[in-house]
Amino acid sequence: MAVTVSTRRTGRRGNAPRRRSLGYWPYLLPGAVLVAAIVVLPLVQNVYYSFTFYRGIRPPEWIGLANWQHLMHDDRFWQSFTHSIAMIVAMVVVPTLLGLLLAAILFDVVGKKFGGRVASLLRAMFYVPQIIPIVVASIVIGWIARPEDGALNEVLGAVGLDGLQQNWLGDPHFALPTIMTVLIWVQIGYPVVIFMAALQRVDPELYEAAELDGANWWHRFRAITLAVIRPEIFVVVLTCTIAALKVFAPVYALTRGGPGTSTIVPSYYSYSEFFQSQQVGYGAAVSTALTVVIVVVAVGFLILQRFVERREA
Amino acid sequence: MSRRTAWDWVLLALAGLAALIVVLPLLLLLLNSFKTPDDYNNGGPLQVPTHLSFHGIQAFWTRVDFPQKLWNSIFISGTVAVLAVVVSVLNAYALGIGRVRGRFPLLLVFLLANMLPQEALLYPLYNLFKNVGLYDSQWSVIIIFTAIQSAFGTYLLASVYGTFPRELLEAASIDGAGRWRTLWRVVVPVSWQTLSVLLIFFFIWTWNEFLIPVTFLISNDKQTVPLAVASLQGDRLMDVTTTSASALLGLIPTLVFFLLFQRTLTRGVTAGAIK
Fold first, then answer.
1. Contact call for B28 and A144, based on CB within 8 A
2. Any chain B CB within 8 A of the CB of A9?
3. Which of B111, B124, B89 lies closest to A31, judged by CA?
4. Min distance A269 CA to chain B CA atoms (Å)
5. Which among A97, A197, A103, A91 has a CA at the least distance from the CA of A134?
6. Which residue, A265, A263, A266, is CA-closest to A142?
7. Separation CA A216–CA A198 (nearest Å)
8. Domain B56-274 falls in which CATH fold?
9. Which residues have CB under 8 Å from A260's CB, separation 6+?
10. Backbone angles phi and psi of A258, in degrees to 5
11. How many angstroms separate the CA atoms of A121 and A128, rounded?
12. Which of A6, A18, A27 to probe the B interface (max B CBs under 10 A)?
């Protein structure tokens, strides 16, 4: 990379930078080579693998649509995507709604009546789990949820609620909600920080005018606040939905998809097909399906956003 | 600060309670990482340690050779952060300031590159790095994340450079500076604030990564801090306070980093959303 760049040093003939010429292409070289080698080609190769029988040792064998047909009837595959919906609830729906509420309280009430310092302190507290590696965050919650001597069961026992003690990660009914708790905990700070920053754009005069018109807090919130911070809501919902579809580390660290398949998610399913079952072709089909879903969701969001913006204008 | 009503206090209490619930798991971790397992079992998780014990910290520290893991994480994340910022700058210079032909489809490729699930690249990359002899080498992880982070950086920086003051570029050109000099003498210094935000984000994002490092770094002595913490879960030698201590040691470096760069990080998070 350094080599390509340093040869450019000689080519300094003082072209005006504004002119559109081929002269900027060399600057794209390192980045383009990297993205081609690390992202584009592997992606194409993975799609190819999804049409092959490939166990990682002998070369892949073309079998057409067989993996994809199998996928359509694979309960585990559909189950993994059903769990993705649970991940979206935990990473998008709950944090966005709670985040709106908390950001509004912190900005409107705490910040204005009790001072900016109190508001920033609370904001920082909400944000702390965001900066922890997600695997470590999972282990923190997993540690609290340990079945025999975890803090949660110990506390439940101590206050006489023994009946509520559970094997939080080992019981198929509770493992998924426990993982969802990890994700809500990790995620909540992100919308709070973004929405609080966005609220600063709301013109206080609009609020005062609304107040004079007799609008209550909820009316103001809906008519003014939500309208102003809608771009941020879009960004948060889009980025968090994509992140929710990709969830891997908490499942890997806490349950490995189990007990049974009660916490399996698409990314973990493809990973286990790659490296445990050695069904590389099939794992490639699962991960390609996930890619398609993510691209469709992202493009769908952007189209929706543009549509809403046009309708406003 | 206007007068506070009872309702204001209620809302403050609610927000404060919610914030407390969020930090509670970390307080529990802190409280129990310095106990012996006996102390934990006798007094429960809510009690202050009867005496300060470094049993758990020490056990985890020596078992995983924590300083080594710390260095591995710093080396990988630091190298990725610097390389990815350099690549992002070069790309964005061509796309945002050079306005090369076909820049919109290229930007779309960079955007998608960052959005894709890593699982969809995992096995081909595994084959690729095995073939070139970099499997189980930290350079495999460095190269992969330089590509992925710089894809995001390119997307963001290209739009920042799209509004770069033209007068500055013209002035440089009149002074006889070529493109290469203009980039390093004008564009980089002027956009240094954005670049420093990217640098810090790339560092922390790479630090927190899991799937690709866990696939490519097999040898114990090459692993990063998050891998070291995760690798011991389910190990029967990990008693309750050692597990607690392992998580505590795993989160301290990012917490310190956050406190050091809090302002830059907050600015970055909010700026990224508006883009």
1. yes
2. yes
3. B89
4. 10
5. A91
6. A263
7. 21
8. MetI-like fold (1.10.3720)
9. A172
10. -100, -170
11. 11
12. A27
Taking CA A68 as the corner, what is the angle to CA A66 and CA A71, rounded to the nearest 5 degrees? 110
- Both tokens of B259, joined, read 């406190």
3-class DSSP assignment, residue A52: strand
Residues B19-41 have pLDDT tens digits of 999 999 999 999 888 888 888 88
Show the tokens assigned to A224. Answer: 């003014």
Measured between CB atoms, does A30 come within 8 Å of chain B? yes
Sequence-separated (6 or more) residues with CB below 8 Å from residue A31: B87, B88, B90, B91, B110, B150, B154
Where do the structural domains in chain A lie, given as residue ranges?
2-69, 76-312
Measure the CA–CA gap between A59 and A281, rounded to whole angstroms.
Answer: 11
How much is the pLDDT for B50?
Answer: 83
Taking CA atoms, A111 is separated from A127, A224, A225, in Å, by 17, 18, 16
Instruction: List all residues 6 or more positions away from A87 whose beta carbon is below 8 Å from its beta carbon.
Output: A180, A183, A244, A245, A247, A265
**pLDDT over threshold 70, residue B273:** no
Q: Are A135 and A253 in contact (CB under 8 A)?
A: yes
Specify the fold of A76-312. Answer: MetI-like fold (1.10.3720)
Question: What part of B 185-224 touches A (C-beta under 8 Å)?
Answer: 204, 207-208, 210-211, 214-215
Nearest to B18 by CA among A264, A128, A19: A128
Q: Locate the domains of chain B by residue range.
A: 56-274
Residue among A12, A109, A126 minimizing CB distance to B19: A126
Q: Give the per-residue pLDDT at A216.
A: 81
Please tell me the distance from the alpha carbon of residue B265 to that of residue B260, in angstroms, as a whole number.
Answer: 10
Q: Tell me A213's DSSP state.
A: T
The SS3 of residue B132 is coil
Burial of A93 (0-12, 13-18, 19+ CB in 10 A): middle
The single-letter DSSP state of residue A223 is I
DSSP string, B147-192: HHHHHHHHHHHHHHHTT--HHHHHHHHHTT--HHHHIIIIIHHHTH
ipTM: 0.88
What does pLDDT average to over chain B? 89
Contacts for A174-179: CB closer than 8 Å, 24+ residues apart = A175/A254, A175/A255, A175/A258, A175/A259, A175/A262, A175/A263, A176/A83, A176/A86, A176/A262, A176/A263, A178/A141, A178/A142, A178/A145, A178/A254, A179/A90, A179/A138, A179/A250, A179/A251, A179/A254, A179/A255, A179/A263
Token digits for A245? 């579809």
In this structure, what is the dihedral angle of CA atoms A136, B223, A249, A146, given to the nearest 10 degrees?
Answer: -50
CA angle (B212, B89, A33) in 5-degree steps? 55
Kindly calculate the radius of gyration of chain B based on its CA atoms and give it in whole angstroms: 24
